[in-house]
Amino acid sequence: MNTIEKDQLYLAGTYGRFPLEIVNGKGSVAIGADGKSYIDMGAGIAVNTFGYADGVFIDAVTKQLSAVQHTSNLYYTAPAADLAEALVKKSGMKKVFFGNSGAEAN
């Protein structure tokens, strides 16, 4: 069973998909299981804004993973406070709210 077949068997089909399995990438270029290169015109979706295999992003994530990969927002962490500060300074807002989906926006 290939990846697409397994996906269709076990994942809820909540939206349409392109018949392409992405297995690798660099920058804005995605590599399919078919070996072809594709310019990912949807790379702006959520976490893909850095593109694929971005060195700076990988280094930052690796550094953080070696310390604390996740904790509840019931506790304080320097990365959360630092990011909040940067966002407040850039946006001109007084505070920010971190949510895990658009549902919290309301």
Which descriptors would you attach to this protein?
106 residues, Aspartate Aminotransferase, domain 1, alpha+beta, 3 helices, single chain, 31% helix, 2 domains, 3-stranded antiparallel beta sheet
Briefly, what is this?
By secondary structure, this protein is α+β, with helices and mostly antiparallel strands. It is 31% helix and 11% strand. The protein has a three-stranded antiparallel sheet, with no helix packed on it.
Structure write-up:
- The radius of gyration is 18 Å and the shape is extended.
- The protein has 106 residues and is α+β, with helices and mostly antiparallel strands.
- Strand 1 and strand 2 form a beta hairpin.
- The relative contact order is 0.08.
- The protein folds into 2 domains: 1-66, Aspartate Aminotransferase, domain 1, CATH 3.90.1150; 72-97, no CATH class.
- The chain is built from 3 helices and 3 strands; from the N terminus they run αβββαα.
